[in-house]
Design a protein that fits this description.
Elements: E1 8-11, H1 20-30, E2 34-38, H2 48-58, E3 62-66, H3 81-95, E4 99-102, H4 110-114, H5 116-126, E5 131-135, E6 140-142, E7 145-147, E8 164-167, H6 168-174, H7 178-185, E9 189-194, H8 215-224, E10 230-233, H9 243-260
Parallel strand pairs: 1-2, 1-10, 2-3, 3-4, 4-5, 5-8, 8-9, 9-10
Antiparallel strand pairs: 6-7
Helix pairs in contact: 1-2, 2-3, 8-9
């Protein structure tokens, strides 16, 4: 019997500026294995019951939830970052997802950062079926000087956590070798954000294969290890201009992932 491949999910952020519901429609049409919900200002993305209705209607499960960690989502659900993580975990449990993607704390979130490691441990105990996968980020430039807006670091392997999300576009933006980062993450690497990029300081989230990141090599490396992980296509289509162009980009991204994941697809 063929081994089942890592599921390939469509991040709802990949259809922006179209709404969350469109991601379910396109995921069903194109044959994605599931959805990653990016919780943001779209009210549908914040409501587990509405999302459950979309799951039933389109027959596409939610397999991961991206907690509201962006600058623009600091007031989604609550101003308290711990409450946002808790509610993301509650949503994941309600929808049957096993991964919550989170970012390291911002540098100015001193109290949150101080207790981040221990706080994640308590969340894991409270939600044992959910992996809180900390994502690699990147430094930014301000006034021609480098600035690291995350604490204790934009690289989550410093200091280290139980579960990680490896984002290839962020690797490009931080000039990080994605394969070396995957090696440092080790068995804790349970989730991949599949997108491409071309250089430092530019978080492009390009269609995989259109940048210089080892997107295919990374998927093949993880696939060979027979490990349990998932892949979410997180690409920017906001400049697509037309639904047909967006759809073509998402179909190309799915085909890329499937081509480099040699095991049988899950659907």
């Amino acid at each position: 019997m063929d081994r089942v491949s890592a599921p390939v999910l469509l991040s709802t952020s990949s259809v922006y500026p179209e709404p969350t519901a469109v991601a379910f429609e396109l995921a069903s049409k194109l044959g994605y294995d599931g959805i990653e919900v990016m919780v943001w200002t779209d009210k549908v993305s914040q409501d587990a019951e509405t999302l459950a209705t979309l799951v039933d209607h389109y027959g596409v499960p939610v397999r991961s939830v991206h907690a509201p960690c962006l600058l623009m989502t600091q007031r989604v659900w609550s101003k308290d970052p711990w409450e946002r993580l808790r509610r993301a975990a509650v949503m994941a449990e309600r929808l049957g997802a096993d991964t919550v993607v989170i970012h390291p704390p911002f540098a100015w979130q001193r109290e949150y950062a101080r207790h981040f490691f221990d706080g994640l441990k308590k969340l894991r105990q409270r939600f044992p079926g959910v992996a809180f996968a900390v994502e690699n980020m990147y430094p930014i430039k301000m006034a021609k000087r480098g600035f690291a807006p995350y604490s204790p670091h934009w690289d989550p392997t410093n200091p280290g956590y139980d579960n990680y999300t490896l984002d290839l576009s962020h690797c490009a933006a931080s000039s990080t070798d994605a394969l070396e980062l995957a090696d440092r993450m080790g068995p804790g690497l349970t989730h991949v954000h599949l997108g491409d990029g071309t250089g430092p300081g530019m978080d492009e989230h390009a269609v995989p294969g259109r940048g210089n990141q080892p997107c295919g090599e990374l998927l093949e490396f993880l696939d060979r290890q027979d490990r349990d992980f998932s892949v979410a296509v997180e690409v920017s289509t906001r400049k697509a201009g037309h639904r047909t162009v967006r759809e073509a980009d998402l179909a190309e991204s799915l085909a890329f992932a499937r081509r480099h994941l040699k095991a049988a697809p899950t659907r």
